[in-house]
């Protein structure tokens, strides 16, 4: 996206790897613990087939949002077990940054390049990888440029 990236910009942005993640919005309770008392907002699961396989995470949307309990809504990222097709509402893929040591170092060093060549860096990769981190890092850049958010 940069027309004329510096050597540092190319190296640092290239140091951040991305992982493909399958996301499924569904109503299949079989991905959750058998005992509902053990359900949590975030439930992690894995099938130790291969060390490289991503860990599965299911978000219990009813506990995170004001969604009626009788309308079960789950969001699974890299589900480790199959989800009943008839209970799937939507399925998509996302690319998420991988925060290994190289990425953490690049993240720190990119902050030192902010504003050079009139280039500013923002995105989920500049914080913790969550969607709201992309937004927050954009606010960081706006503040670094001297702008004050109107809600402050």
What would you say this structure looks like, in words?
With 152 residues, the chain is an alpha+beta fold. It has one domain (1-121). 24% of the residues lie in helices and 22% in strands. It has 4 helices and 5 strands; from the N terminus they run αβββαββαα. It has helices spanning 7-14, 61-64, 101-111, 131-144; strands spanning 17-26, 42-45, 56-60, 74-77, 88-98. A 5-stranded antiparallel sheet has the order 2-3-4-1-5. It starts with 6 loop residues before the first helix and ends in an 8-residue tail after the last helix. The relative contact order is 0.19. The mean pLDDT is 93.
Which properties best describe this structure?
single chain; 152 residues; 4 helices; 22% strand
Q: Which spans have pLDDT < 50 for at least 5 consecutive residues?
A: none
Find the count of extended strands (DSSP E, 2+ residues): 5
Structural class: alpha+beta
What characteristic shape results from the CA principal axes? elongated
**How much strand?**
15-25%
In DSSP terms (H or I, runs of 4 or more residues), the helix count works out at 4
Quick overview:
Helices cover 24% and strands 22% of the residues. It is an alpha+beta fold and 152 residues long.
């Amino acid at each position: 996206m940069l027309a004329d990236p510096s050597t540092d910009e190319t190296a640092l942005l290239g140091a951040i790897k991305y992982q493909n993640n399958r996301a499924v919005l569904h109503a299949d309770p079989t991905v959750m613990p058998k005992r509902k008392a053990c359900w949590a907002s975030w439930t992690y699961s894995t099938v130790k087939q291969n060390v490289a396989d991503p860990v599965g995470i299911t978000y219990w949307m009813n506990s995170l949002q004001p969604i009626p309990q009788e309308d079960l809504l789950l969001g699974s990222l890299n589900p480790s077990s199959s989800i009943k097709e008839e209970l799937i509402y939507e399925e998509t893929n996302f690319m998420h940054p991988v925060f290994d040591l190289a990425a953490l170092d690049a993240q720190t060093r990119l902050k030192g390049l902010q504003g050079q060549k009139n280039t500013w860096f923002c995105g989920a990769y500049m914080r913790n990888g969550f969607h709201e981190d992309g937004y927050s890092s954009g606010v960081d850049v706006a503040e670094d440029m001297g702008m004050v958010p109107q809600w402050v």
